[in-house]
Amino acid sequence: MVTLRLGSHGADVVELQLRLAQIGAYEGEADGVYDEQVTIAVEVYQWWAGASVDRLGVYGPHTRSLLEAETGEPE
Question: Angle 61-70/11-22 helices, nearest 10 degrees?
């Protein structure tokens, strides 16, 4: 599993953006850029889900597992 954070980019970030959009935490474009808007969305999700293992705003293995369990595979 790849850890994503501010400055990351690519297909994994697109998937993250789409998953965050499924739960209403992200309303931006799924452009594959992990910017401040994505960071804030991840922080909000982490707070909501009680994900305290990964650093705040970082999409690490724990946060990824929780989000993937709550969302469907993006199309």
Answer: 50
CA 66 to chain centre: 10
Q: How far apart are CA 27 and CA 50, in angstroms?
A: 21
pLDDT in tens, 23-35: 999 999 999 999 9
Q: Residue with structure tokens 């960071």?
A: 39
CA-CA distance, 32 to 51, in Å (whole number)? Answer: 23
Distance CA 4, CA 32 (A): 11
Residues of the chain with pLDDT under 70: none
Q: Which of 59, 9, 6, 16 is nearest to 36 (CA)?
A: 6
